[in-house]
């Protein structure tokens, strides 16, 4: 066994209360890539090296550098197809591009037949650069600028999801100025606040998004859209949160949105339903970040939603609407890993004779802010080789290289005692909300993003260079 240059000086590290679960007792367990957490085409060869869609991680690191986001293209496409099958029509599944977007990924989404949710002019521009069919794009946002609204109308997007009275007036004006009628959905705040593993119904909807249902704002907004010459009301939209494992929150939301449809029909007449034909229940389906997470498959959620919507429609004597959804994380999250090179390893003495092993990597909170921001939990493994056969599992904290004590990538994970500088480790399920939330903190260049498929790799987004970092300087 390789001697560890940094220790360990203490036989035991902190174990109690860790978020990485119990200590693996064999090196096989230490090396395992749980199929629910790791990309579908990730495997560890007999030589101990992990291959992603058949591509050796050492080769990826050598060719593109680290940190590196590696996307399993087939995994992404398969999840698009599974959602499309579950909801019966691919165009009813809007991939939430805020989770991750590049021109090439927008092309994959288009090829899989899905629709696209964008929430800024920037995301819209990427989609249009990919020639994404505009009629399959919906624009979101609580404070879209006039320029963003105009760009969307001029592109001919399939829907603008309106979020304020000001926006209804602005969008109506923009559409009329251009002699078009813009299809619109209303974002409804249904009073269901979803958290990771639970949901709580709130009496007051204390948040910036949407029109409150309980106050009557949602009905008033619908009335204004119906009256606006430049707008056509095609749907109601609700989004209850993200990383949700339980269908109950969606069911409550669906029920309340259908009640609103019935109310609007009663007030404005049944002809309204000729255009108001879609109920969009947003995104939020959770994924497994660790083997303990057990998210429901899309087919299960789709079935639950169909059942509840059909029951509510029957109850309110309404025709069955189209049920649309906007998954982001559930499509792009699980198929991507971040590859890092280990730089330094330190055992830090704590109270009561315990110590904590800090493993520093060449990225950090600038490429994954989710741990610092949400206490997110991740699975992390040594991937450039197997653990030495007699290596013990050591509870580690994987940290970045930023000038910030809270710069933690993985709070707790079990790594082999023989882990050493130069080894590559990978953090699983980083496809959603990591690259897109990356920052340039401490002037670290943003990592590259590569796609792997059938034993080959190609870059989607190149690594930032020092020139990129300096390009905004005016002197
Ligand atoms: C309106 C809307 N739709 C879709 C999504 C995508 O959510 P997720 O990535 O959790 O599926 C979000 C983000 O929470 C959202 O705000
Ligand atoms: N960014 C969040 C989710 C927000 C989703 C967008 N409304 C995350 O990383 O989990």
Please give a structural write-up.
The longest helix is centred in the middle third of the chain and has 21 residues, at 248-268. The chain has helices spanning 27-31, 57-64, 73-87, 103-111, 121-129, 146-155, 165-177, 217-227, 248-268, 272-275, 298-315, 329-332, 370-374, 466-470; strands spanning 42-44, 50-52, 55-56, 68-72, 94-96, 115-118, 137-139, 159-162, 182-189, 192-194, 199-201, 211-212, 231-237, 278-280, 322-324, 336-349, 355-361, 380-382, 393-399, 408-416, 424-428, 448-453, 456-461. Helix 3 packs parallel to helix 11. The chain has 2 domains: 27-71 and 334-470, Beta Barrel (Lyase, Ornithine Decarboxylase, Chain A, domain 1); 73-332, TIM Barrel, CATH 3.20.20. The chain is of the alpha/beta class and 475 residues long. The strands form 4 sheets. Strands 4, 16, 17, 18, 19, 20, 21, 22 and 23 form a 9-stranded mixed sheet that branches. Strands 5, 6, 7, 8, 9, 12, 13, 14 and 15 form a 9-stranded parallel sheet that branches.
């Amino acid at each position: 066994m390789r001697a560890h240059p940094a220790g360990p000086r203490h036989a035991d590290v902190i174990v109690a209360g860790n978020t990485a679960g119990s200590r693996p007792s064999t090196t096989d367990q230490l090396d395992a890539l749980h199929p629910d957490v790791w990309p579908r085409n990730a495997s560890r060869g007999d030589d101990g090296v992990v291959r992603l869609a058949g591509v050796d991680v050492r080769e990826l690191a050598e060719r593109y550098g680290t940190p590196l986001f590696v996307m399993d293209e087939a995994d992404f496409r398969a999840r698009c197809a599974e959602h499309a099958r579950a909801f019966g029509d691919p165009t009813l599944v809007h991939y939430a591009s805020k989770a991750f977007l590049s021109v090439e990924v927008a092309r994959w989404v288009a090829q899989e037949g899905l629709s696209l949710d964008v929430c800024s002019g920037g995301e819209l521009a990427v989609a249009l650069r990919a020639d994404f069919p505009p009629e399959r794009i919906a624009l979101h946002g609580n404070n879209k600028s006039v320029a963003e609204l105009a760009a969307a109308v001029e592109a001919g997007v399939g829907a603008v999801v309106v979020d304020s009275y000001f926006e209804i007036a602005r969008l109506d004006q923009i559409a009329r100025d251009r002699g078009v009628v813009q299809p619109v959905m209303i974002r409804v705040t249904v009073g269901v606040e979803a958290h990771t593993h639970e949901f709580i119904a709130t009496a007051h909807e204390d948040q910036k998004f949407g029109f409150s249902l309980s106050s009557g704002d949602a009905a008033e907004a619908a009335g204004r859209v119906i009256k606006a010459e430049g707008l056509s009301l095609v749907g109601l939209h609700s989004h209850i949160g993200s990383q949700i494992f339980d269908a109950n929150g969606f069911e409550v939301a669906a029920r309340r949105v259908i009640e609103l449809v019935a109310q609007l029909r009663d007030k404005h007449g049944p002809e309204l339903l000729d255009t108001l034909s879609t109920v969009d229940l947003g995104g939020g389906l959770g994924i497994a970040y660790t083997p303990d997470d057990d998210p429901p498959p899309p087919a299960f959620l789709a079935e639950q939603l169909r059942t509840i919507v059909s029951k509510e429609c029957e109850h309110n004597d309404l025709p069955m609407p189209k049920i649309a959804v906007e998954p982001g994380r559930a499509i792009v999250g699980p198929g991507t890993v971040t590859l890092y090179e280990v730089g330094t390893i330190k055992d830090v003495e704590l109270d009561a004779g315990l110590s904590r092993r800090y493993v520093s990597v060449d990225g950090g909170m600038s490429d994954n802010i989710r741990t610092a921001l949400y206490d997110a939990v991740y699975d992390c493994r040594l991937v450039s080789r197997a653990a030495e056969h007699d290596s013990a599992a050591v509870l580690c904290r994987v940290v970045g290289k930023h000038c910030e004590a809270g710069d933690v990538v993985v709070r707790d994970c079990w790594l082999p005692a023989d882990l050493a500088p130069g080894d590559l480790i990978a953090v699983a399920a980083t496809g959603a909300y990591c690259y897109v939330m990356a920052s340039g903190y401490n002037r670290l260049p943003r990592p590259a993003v590569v796609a792997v498929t059938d034993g080959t790799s190609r870059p989607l987004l190149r690594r930032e260079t020092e020139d990129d970092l300096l390009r905004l300087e005016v002197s």
